[in-house]
Amino acid sequence: MATVEIGRTRPASGGNAAAKVRRTLITVAYGLVLPISIVAFWSWLAGTGEFSASQLPSPGDVLWAAGDLASRGVLLDHILISTQRVITGFGIGAGLGVILGSAVGLSPLIGRFLQPTIGAIRAVPSLAWVPLLLIWLGIYEPPKLTLIAIGAFFPVFTTVAAGFRAVDRNLIEVGRAYGKSGIALVTGVLLPAAAPTIFSGIRLGLAQSWLFLVAAELIASSKGLGYLLIDSQNSARTDILFLVIILLALLGKLTDFVVSLVEKRVLRWV
Amino acid sequence: MPIAETLRTADIHVAPASVRLDAVGKSFGKAGQSVDVLTNISLEVAAGEVVVLLGPSGCGKSTLLRLIAGLETATVGSVTIDGHEVTGIDTRCGVVFQEPRLFPWKSIEDNVVVGARGARSSETVAALLAAVGLSGFEKHLPRQVSGGMAQRAALARGLAGFPGVLLLDEPFAALDALTRLTMQDLLLDVAQETGATVVLVTHDIDEALHLADRIVVLGERGQGIAEIVTVDHPRPRDRSHPGLAPLRDELLARFGIHP
User: Fold this and answer.
1) Contact B182/A9, CB-based, under 8 Å?
2) Which residue of A142, A260, B35, B201 pairs with B61 in a disulfide if CB–CB is 3.0 to 4.6 A?
């Protein structure tokens, strides 16, 4: 039979290593332009003398506060306890979200049972649970972890359920036509097809976890970044307030970056 | 090595399977406002026969194919393969869809292996990939190849299980003219060598004339089979054989084109 010559399209592995590093550096450089400009503007604004240090501390003040807290050995403690709370609460909430979201997304019957109830629970503003959680679970770790888990659960649950429901019917049909059914169809077709949506849900859930961490720590705590916020507000330490806000931004970004690395590894085909 | 020889060497034969449709009808939609897509279709396809379903868009030819594959259930009548009623997805069938429908997370090669259902050797998969002109693209992802290449991979996937009944829904429509001819011959080679029964949907009259033992012409939606034309020409067929011209004219006339 005649051979058909076809020109190669996009190569399977993109470019050489040097070019890859170059691209990464350029991306990082673009991303840094705005933060550096903001810090420069902030520094200038604080230096004009228009504002008192308790209204607008300078970047230097914030750095000094960081150094001070670090040298007293408390900064790392606050960061670690908050990170630990986020990871634990997120793990519980996202885990439940994946399990129940999968059940609802895969089985219309389970969906009919669960969807209305979960939808109603979701409609309750999450902070409304706080008084109840405090009465039921005390003021130590359990209510905080539960609140963070509630925050992580809903975005994960919703996106996972929607992700499974949105899987291309045509691909499912191919799977069935080539002999896959039941668990094999789920793991072989539905799961990989829904994986990109599942990951975006997990990342949303992680962002929500940080949000709820602060809420939880603002309410009752003696450690953690949320506590540090309240404490520095009470003692008018605006420099520490700034520091905590910046730390929350960095930690949120960092944990999201870690998940994105996993995502890139798992979804190599995207 | 041409595919026919590979198959001969590997001694691949399928269990011959006949297809029988008995007064089959299919309607879609709710009771009261349903649309009859197919009514009263009776057809018998012998084991190893190549039958082409030809008809205008919307006449239900794809639906008919899906009924044989068990992807749809007939509203009335019965579909049997080799005497056994089709009651769900039937693994005796291999289906090639209009679109490639490759799994985007699997390489071209692994997609073909899906069709083989783990039962075939890697040599057979490699031979099929070579036969559809995809040697060297085994490790590529579907998004890294052109639409025509993806469709050829889908053809290889459909063939890879060496099913008793091959069901193809306009499998070559998205291919360029030259590749289309090559793939038609590949299909005939595989069918002949393995003894598979072929039911193929097309709206291309020349394709029908080249491939078919019989051409089943479907009427407008819901009207059933309009005509069955036997193409009694020896194979391999010469596409420009003057003996096919009267048949072509007859078929064209059926669709309102008078040469």
Assistant:
1) no
2) B201
